[in-house]
Specification:
The chain has 11 helices and 2 strands; from the N terminus they run αααααββαααααα. The chain is mainly α. It folds into 2 domains: about 55 residues, Orthogonal Bundle (Arc Repressor Mutant, subunit A), CATH 1.10.10.60; about 130 residues. The protein has a two-stranded antiparallel sheet with strand order 1-2. A hairpin with a 2-residue loop joins strand 1 and strand 2. The longest helix is centred in the first third of the chain and has 19 residues. It is elongated, with a radius of gyration of 22 Å.
Length: about 210
């Protein structure tokens, strides 16, 4: 009686770059669902189908993995430079408008709910002084302000300098954080529509007419 040899499917060998990204994507998903404290290196390894040492090969520690999740995923897009490549009204040099950029940022975030959820969870967890991103989030408001102030915004003439915009920007970002939390809950709201309703209150007429 002849027997037919069974052939195993060939194991697909992934490049180091592909494997690293796969691990990063799994960590983003797990941390956005469970938080940093509720996610282990083993959890990430199981999600990818590799050993714990396989994850540690690319990220030597859990803190190192978290730093990559935050800096390489959430912070890698949606910045002012991205906005300036869109060709949208208010995105061009010489006519760079703050309300227009924030509107773009809301739209951008509406396309990446998992990363917004990741940011929201890390923001709360980082209240703990022992959290690896504690200092980063504690200084986030100042670092954002510094980043925004490096750009030449087209502002209403009533403002003598961008420094006078700081309270408005702070309130706008705080409102954005709150609206995004409501958006992530069920029943969901339309993030862009909600921001459109709030924008006239943050940047009121007639002061901001022609500068939105």
């Amino acid at each position: 009686m002849s027997t037919q040899a069974t052939t195993r499917p060939k194991r697909i060998r992934k490049s180091p770059e592909e494997r690293r990204q796969e691990i990063l994507d799994a960590a983003v998903r797990l941390i956005s669902e469970r938080g940093y404290s509720g996610t282990s290196i083993q959890d990430v390894a199981d999600a990818v189908g590799v050993t714990k040492q396989g994850v540690l090969r690319y990220f030597p520690s859990k803190d190192n993995l978290l730093a990559a999740v935050y800096h390489e995923s959430y912070n890698m897009s949606g910045d002012i430079e991205d906005f300036m490549t869109t060709g949208l009204p208010g995105s061009t040099p010489g006519d760079l408008r703050l309300p227009a950029y924030l509107r773009f940022l809301v739209w951008h975030n509406s396309k990446r709910p998992m990363l917004v959820q990741l940011f929201s969870i890390l923001q709360v967890e980082s209240f703990n002084p022992d959290h690896p991103l504690h200092d980063e989030f504690a200084g986030r408001r100042d670092s954002i302000w510094h980043y925004y102030s490096m750009h030449d915004w087209n502002l209403p003439p009533e403002f003598d300098s961008f420094e006078e915009i700081r309270p408005t920007l702070r309130r706008a970002l705080e409102i954005m954080d709150g609206v995004q939390l409501r958006w992530l809950r069920a029943p969901a709201i339309d993030l862009n529509d909600e921001w459109a309703d709030l924008e006239p209150m943050i940047f009121p007429s007639p002061l901001w007419d022609g500068y939105r």
